[in-house]
From TrEMBL:
It is found in: Cell membrane; Membrane. GO terms for cellular component: cell division site; plasma membrane. Residues 17-27, 347-356 have a biased composition (Polar residues). The lineage of its organism: Bacteria, Bacillati, Bacillota, Bacilli, Lactobacillales. Keywords: Cell cycle, Cell division, Cell membrane, Membrane, Transmembrane, Transmembrane helix. This is Cell division protein DivIB. InterPro entries: Cell_div_FtsQ/DivIB_C, DivIB, FtsQ_DivIB, POTRA, POTRA_FtsQ_type. Its main location: membrane. Coiled coil: none annotated.
Amino acid sequence: MAKDKDRDKEKQENKETASLTQWQQRNLEFLKKRQEEKLEKEKKEEQRMAEKKAQFQAEKETDKPVKKVTETTDEKSAKEAKEESFKSIAQTKKKKVKKKKKAPVIPRKELWQALLIIIISSFVLMASLFMISPFSRQKTVSVSGSKNAIEAEIIEKSGIKKSDYLTHLIFNRKHYEKAIEQKDNWIKKARIDYRFPNKFTIKVKEYNILAYTQTDKGYIPILENGTRVDTVNASELPESFLKINLDDKEAVRRLVQKLAKVDKAIVEQIKTISSANSRSTKDLLLLEMKDGYTIRVPLSDIDTKLPYYPKIKKDKADGSIIDMEVGLYSTSPEIEAKLDDNRSKANSESSNNSTTPDKENTSSDADSSQSSSDAVTEATTSQ
């Protein structure tokens, strides 16, 4: 009967082991071995204890130090056995924990996406904090390149305010540049440069002064675009300058535009420009040159006829009058005076003889026209 029971136990154990996994089976075998080892150790310890008792009784007086040594060795062996059992159990637990708990692996794409989100969010946070702080409005504005325009007026006309944000000024620089060019007559071109962190420089290019016109209050500079600026004192005038004596602002603007097309060397030789008060040509101008010559030329043709002046004056005497009204010819003040006298005589005779017969009038008119034609032929030189 006992054998049958043992066989039944073995069958049950075999069935249980078959249902278990390999790791569990190995664990069970390991535990069985440990139990067998414990039983063997207990048996050995019992035998040793019996032997010790016998020896203790026989050698009680003689072998006391030997007994102490044996006792310590037995204690050490027991401790070592316990430590080994604990270590084996701990190792099995660690293996179980390692198999159960595996750290999840995060893919690199997700890591980069998370890093990008963190960078963007931190940048937005810093930007928002900067915009809230007073540092977002602190800036220094300076002007460079201005000779006649006043720096404070340029900044004021630009429209830049202390309350403006730095970002608004950086991204809307063209708006402020146009405002300066439109509001300040001196400024031809304006450009705003930004330097980190909060420095702005308004670089300007001014219009050149082409001429001056005299008024009761003083001299008014006329710029190269034809506009007039604030009056200056006589002490502020240069040593030599062009003086324009024209009241019509539109005529002055057209004149400046025409002179811009002429060689600067010729323009620099002009002393004064005034109206010739001609009845036949309303825009006829009278130009007094620095070298003593006088030029009569229409405003509409000044850019095309004035370039011939250096060639014409080579063969003419000093102080000659160069007439460019219709053609190109030269005369002198004496001849011009004779022409004026003949014209005045003709006008007076025509007024005095208005009541005389037609024959007398025709004869006097013929005489006056003959004298004037003689004066003109004397003055005219073909070009």
